[in-house]
Amino acid sequence: MEIQGLILNPETKQAASLLAEVTFNRYRNNPGHYRNTASSHLVGHLGEFAAFIWLRDNGFEPEATFSDPTKDKDCDITSNIGRVEVKTWSAKHWEQWGRCVSVSQYASIKRKADFIFWCTVDEVESETPKVQFRGWCNVSIYEGMEPIMTGAAGRQVLNYQLEESQLNPVSQLK
User: Fold this and answer.
1) I need a labelling partner for 125 at 20 to 30 A (CA). Which of 38, 93, 141, 169 fits?
2) pTM of the predicted model, to two decimals?
């Protein structure tokens, strides 16, 4: 599958960093579905900004719900093709954790989003991080799937995980 992506500019990286600081401070004492670190918040927001830019540049009229931390119960992005949840992993964790939705998070995602836009981020510490669009899937693809334990020993999470071949290329959103 062809993987598209983009390089974020320093201003977008700064905006993602500021938003990550706010959301990390808000949730720093909540265990969450996965590791709750300042870095994981930044990775997530970099993916959201990149997905927003791609959707905007391709005529999908996105609205960045993620930019308002008080709307964390809503989808990340609304658009003229549906409600979007953006899931982003650092590139080094894609094989192990990518394409996963935790069992405890699935009901919330199903309620608020129509599809998931999957990203990976490389060079997170760079002023111009690289975001790759790994694909997308309908939220309903997880319905009836058997959960599995994923992750390194001692840090495993019960997840629904797709095979990479089950993702649709982002070009198919057009």
Assistant:
1) 169
2) 0.92
Token representation of residue 164: 């990479």
Q: If we measure between CA atoms, which residue out of 94, 81, 80, 87 comes closest to residue 66?
A: 87
Ordered per-residue pLDDT tens for the chain, 174 residues: 667 899 999 999 999 999 998 887 776 666 555 566 778 889 999 999 999 999 999 999 999 999 998 898 899 999 999 999 999 999 998 988 899 999 989 999 999 999 999 999 998 889 999 999 999 999 999 999 999 998 878 878 899 999 999 999 999 987
CA dihedral 6, 11, 17, 19 (to 10 degrees): -100
Give CA–CA dist 45/76, Å, rounded: 10
Helices 10-27 and 38-57, axial angle in degrees (round to 10): 130
